Amino acid sequence: MQFSTKYKEFILRGQLETVQNEVKESNEALRGAQGELMERQRFLQNLEVELESLHKQVAALEGNLGETGQKYSTEMERLQATLNQLEDDLSQLRLDMQRTKTDYEQLLRIKQNLEMEIATYRRLLEGEERKSLLHQKENCEVVTQTMINGKVVDESSEVEQIEETKK
């Protein structure tokens, strides 16, 4: 009996040692897992802090982008208004130049007609009048140039035939 008790005790001690070794290994594995879990929790916490920081950066950048977009939009509107005004001014200037050109051409024709009348009266006063009727034709060419800043931007010419009847 003693043998069997000792044998049982030996087996139980072996089993106890095995269980104790398993418990010891499990405890070590548990401590390792707890350490790894704590490490991963710290890593997760760091990632959450970094994510929150990135969210704040994104919000700040979106705010800056909105402000910048608004500034450029306002500046573009101002520049477009200036461009429209300059185009209107240019159109008005062209109309004024055309009116001035037309007025100049009319005045030039009047001047030429007056010069011809003066020449006729001069001949009459100087006794150059002939008794027979003379038909005199003169060609008069009017050249009109429009200049801006010293450069010719438009040129036109008109030939007018003037007929005079003299006695």
Report on the structure:
This protein is an alpha+beta fold and 167 residues long. The chain is built from 1 helix and 2 strands, in the order H-E-E. It has a two-stranded antiparallel sheet.
Descriptive labels:
19% strand; alpha+beta; two-stranded antiparallel sheet
Write the layout of secondary structure elements.
Blueprint lengths: L1 H124 L8 E15 L2 E16 L1
Antiparallel strand pairs: 1-2
Described by strand count, sense and barrel closure, the largest sheet is: 2 strands, antiparallel
Q: What is the alpha-carbon Rg in Å?
A: 56 Å
Average of pLDDT: 86
Portion of residues within helices:
over 70%
**How much beta, percentage-wise?**
15-25%
Helical element count? 1
| Unreliable residue runs | none
Distance between the termini: 179 Å
Helix and strand element order: HEE
- Based on Cα principal axes, name the global outline: rod-shaped
Structural class: alpha+beta
Using DSSP, what is the number of strands? 2
